[in-house]
Amino acid sequence: MSEEFRYQLWKTTKWTAFYFAVLVLCVVSIFPFYYAVLTSFKSGTDLFRVSYFPDTFTLENYASVMTQGSFPLNFLNSIIVSAIVVAISLLLAVTAAYALARVRFRGRGIILLIILSVSMFPQIAVLAGLFELISAMGIYNTLLAVIFAYMIFTLPFTVWVLTTFMRDLPVEIEEAAIVDGASPWIIIRRVFLPLMWPALVTTGLLAFIAAWNEFLFALTFLSSNTTRTVTVAIALLSGASEHEVPWGIIMAASVIVTVPLLVLVLIFQRKIVAGLTAGGVKG
Question: Domain extents for the chain?
Fold first, then answer.
């Protein structure tokens, strides 16, 4: 066996193993969602028959989700909450990132460490304190309660990421704007925001996903059907009896909830990649 043949054999084996691992990873990642979509189009006894390819097709489950109960209102609540959380997080994070990255003052490093450490606390650790605070503020069972609660884990993340990104931007750009008489707010709005667009999209989308999928705070701070978000609404779906679980309706609701996230990722995928890989301004 020649040396060249051994090299080609090793190269072929390496790439075969790589593509096989990628295939396994894709199957493991995609199969649960595929099976949920498949189940959402089944009804009756077909729900309990294992099949990996569609043999029946019905929109009955989707019609039931959208016409029965308060799921459309819960869906709208999730959109409102997630959008407001992202808007507030980005607004506060951009201004905080400018101060932490550009303004020199004592304790700047300690503040960044505190911000990072806050995001490491598990939700259950702050649940009791948040409940008391929200009850004292009189916003229990309102969308303001979950908006306030979600800021705990979205704001530290956005501040940390945007601060790191802003540090990599050339100081000369800011100095040129200052020479032209620009105020700090003008520098943020007209200089930094256009350059930080990929990072803003990336952090905003990740914050939106975190708020959209959150369950524990929504379950604790929202108690009525008219104020609940979709994650809690799906968890509380039930059949005619406690032993009857409407799997088809649950899968249809899960697919409906997942579609907006997929659409956002597909729309902003180029900005997301740019935001994750950008480390400065290319000349």
Answer: 3-60, 67-277
pLDDT category of residue 80 using cuts at 50, 70 and 90: very high
In degrees and rounded to multiples of 5, residue 34 shows phi and psi of: -60, -45
Whether the CB-CB separation of 61 and 40 falls below 8 Å is answered with: yes
Q: What is the value of pTM for the model shown?
A: 0.81
pLDDT tens per residue across span 225-253:
889 999 998 888 865 445 566 788 888 89
- Could you confirm whether domain 67-277 is CATH 1.10.3720.10? yes
Is 252 within 8 Å of 61 (Cβ atoms)? yes
**Which residues neighbour 177 within 8 Å (Cβ) at sequence distance 6 or greater?**
186, 187, 190, 191
Please choose, from the candidates 211, 72, 90, 109, the residue with its C-alpha nearest in 3D space to the C-alpha of residue 159: 90
Residue 202: closest CA among 274, 104, 147, 121: 274
DSSP-derived secondary structure for 86-114:
HHHHHHHHHHHHHHHHHS--TTHHHHHHH
Site of tokens 């029946």? 56
Token pair for residue 138?
């009189």
